[in-house]
Amino acid sequence: MELDYNKTLNLPQTSFPMRAGLPVREPEYLKEWYENHLYERAVERNKGKEPFIIHDGPPYANGDIHIGHALNKILKDFIERFALMDGKYAPFVPGYDTHGLPIELRVLRQLNAENSTMSKVEIRRACREYAQRFVDIQTEEFKRLGCLGDWDHSYKTMAKEFEAEQVKVFGTMAEKGYIYKGLKPVYWCSHCGTALAEAEIEYSDDPCTSIYVRFPAVEDNGFLQENGLPLEKTYFLIWTTTTWTIPGNQGICLNPEFDYSVVKTGDEYYVIATELVEDTMKAGGVTEYETVLHAKGSAFENIKSRHPFLDRETVVMIDDYVTLDAGTGCVHNASGHGLEDFEVCSRYNLPVIVVVDSEGHMTADAGEDIRGLTTDEATPIILQKLIDTKALFARSEIVHQYPHCWRCHEPVLFRATEQWFCSVKGFAEETVKAINEVKWIPDWGRDRMTSMVLERTDWCISRQKSWGVPIPAFYCKKCGRYHITHESIEAVSELFEREGSDAWYIRDAAEILPEGTKCAYCGGTEFTKEEDIMDVWFDSGSSHFAVLRKRPELVWPCDLYLEGGDQYRGWFQSSLLTSVACLGKAPYKGVLSHGWTVDEQGRKMSKSLGNGIDPNDVVKQYGADILRLLFASCDYHADVKLSHDILKQLSDSYRKVRNTARFILGNLYDFEPDRDSVPLCEMEEIDRYAVAKLNEVIRTALACYREYDFNGVYRAIHSFCVIDLSNVYLDILKNRLYVERSDSRTRRSAQTAIYTILSAVTRLLAPILCFTTDEIWKELPSSSGFDHSAVLLNDMPAVYEVNFSGEDMAKWNRILEVRSDVMKALEEARTAKVIGASLEACVTLHAQGDELDFIRSVEGFLKDVFIVSDVHITDEGKGTYEGETVSVDVDKAAGEKCERCWSYDTTVGQDPEHPTICARCAEVIR
């Protein structure tokens, strides 16, 4: 019977599927991970080793996760998984931000109720249930992305123990004098009915009326008279884009060091900053004017002017906050509606006038005829008053960037109210010192945070809503002063830890305060409680106290904070401020920030634009590993572009890596590492070359991981798999793997190399392609050196000792340069139909001098490296194909085609037992 030579070949065998089927298979791996406590085992195996702690910035629990959440958590998971495989003790405690206005508004909307119809306790209980529901939902969504962590013990800002610790943070800052209550202008959202912090403000285009207003001088400080300027004809010209604040004007501020001009037009004189005269006159349509006087802004101090339509004098003040960016250099000051206005007016002992109430309606101080109107309704009436009194110099309709509430997206007001503040200015110098001790990635984060801290004087930490941690302050009924002491803070903290913060609204002050408590100012013994709650940024900014310093498995300061770039004014900053205020140093050693997720046009993804991509949809269609690969393949420090086209392209890249793994697994079906491995230093030279190339990838990937450069990891591994392996080494290897005797040393050498490569690459890729690498790992032949239950339970690969010098590497790089020329020549010959498959070819290399000597020195490798049947070398003439290193001729190889190995050989037909195969194959199967 004729022998089937195909059955004598070592053809690949594997159950590893070509099609990944990630959306179906990934949930199976998740189930296995959690049933087998993979995270806990990975952490436990490094117990006692160097810790590495990422502190999780809590996402807001008010809906499903969005693509920005996915980017953030996946980046953290890359770092977490690498740390665990890099020998670090790296527990990861996820967190959730659960208080705040968005939840409260949604709950009230769902219940179709207003605060007045429900008690605070009822509102809070409904909010807690709502938040917990989305904590549970988001937890499952993050798990589905492959993100590991202590999900069963995540921290929540609404937890009793968290609230208790947060109260202590507030108390410590109060004891140090950084917390106070006072009347100051703050951002105020009349739609949400609460004060806002800077981190809760977003700037958007807003149409408005820009106006220039004349304020007539009515009382000289001596300067006008000395310079012959008529008091009754002299005006200070101000510019504003908030017409509704004009009724609140109490003064006009000039910069004492700027040059000002007195400009005469007709019989009237206008005081304007010299650099802004031309633009101001142009805005007023004035073409004929002359400058009659120059003076510094300080010369005009304390001149009195008259309000355009109210019976009120205003005063000319000086301060260096005035700039020349726009306007006239004479700044309209309304103490109740601007922070600089408030500070300057306070220095001049002017009263605070607030012309808008908490609901956005004009007050009596604005005038009885506009009292009760909204600012939008009042604006045209105020404009008409300015026209009627001939005070309006010019007006125009413009669109400018104006602060809006980040929750309801409505324009906000700046109005003075009684609020609780943290005096950032009080410890700014210490904070800057702490900033300089932190590693910021990217580097510009240091300067950004420094400037933000130095520009910030106060942090408004009170909110006028129900769902949050109550501000733990009491008020003396007798004198009205607030009462915060170490003893009162301890009492509130203990109460919250025992009963939760709802107890603040259930118990009377007398039930909370220690017995015998007295007012430090008047000795009063009866107290009421503060009604405001804390800013949610104070909640999350206290997390390093409530989590890092309280959980025994964690450490403070942690190694890393990782969030989006918006958190420089959010969580990065609030955590820094609470930490420096209480402990004198930053709560983190490093801060890493990422960009936004944007569409292919570079637009930030949002519901309003309808350009968002739901991560849950991506996972259902492509699998989580494709999303993870996308985030690893991009420069996440900048904005991350995302679209279905990009995901499809990444799917192709993924398949190339997967197919490389499948090929290797298919050729390891009969390989038992502990039994069959060849010592690395004794492998065939090309196999040692392949492992030496692997070593380069290992060095690069490990260095990139430690710098959080996941794109560098991806590029190094992808290039190695596609170019070095699939296009070169594995292609060369096929003949040896398939044709040689299965247990031959040369085949075992090849198998040892590819096993070494795949085991290393799988571990290097494990933090990124967490599902796929686990699938590969389980298919790899078992070795006593690894834990094969999960790839995560193994160490990152170290560089292998393969006895391969720099000279050896240079030699093989040079061989492959020659190969590149030969491959191009073979392709041309194939196109010209000289040959079909490369094994039909005999290649002649034409070279001279050093190149000829080199090629002859490596002649024994060339036939296998080129995958041809024969190679000739000559120093005569030129080949038909001129390459970079050699010129090449391609001819049909002599001999017949071997039925078993498909090479052309003159020995085919010489063996009477096997007349259709070559001598080499006959020897193998004998």
Strand content: 15-25%
Give a count of the beta strands, DSSP E runs of length 2 or more. Answer: 33
Indicate the low-confidence ranges by residue numbers. Answer: none
Helix share, percent:
25-40%
What is the radius of gyration computed over CA atoms, rounded to a whole number of angstroms? Answer: 38 Å
Shape: elongated
End-to-end distance? 16 Å
Class by alpha and beta content: alpha/beta
> How would you sum up the major sheet?
10 strands, mixed
Mean pLDDT across residues: 92
Count of helix runs = 30
Offer a quick outline of the entry.
The chain has about 950 residues and is of the alpha/beta class.
Write a structural description:
With about 950 residues, the chain is an alpha/beta fold. About 40% of the residues lie in helices and about 20% in strands. The chain has 30 helices and 33 strands. Strands 6, 7, 8, 9, 10, 11, 12, 13, 14 and 15 form a 10-stranded mixed beta sheet that branches. A hairpin with a 5-residue loop joins β20 (about 475) and β21. α4 crosses α5 (about 120-145), α11 (about 430-435) crosses α18 and α23 (about 685-705) packs antiparallel against α24. The two termini are about 15 Å apart. The model has no long low-confidence stretch (mean pLDDT about 90).
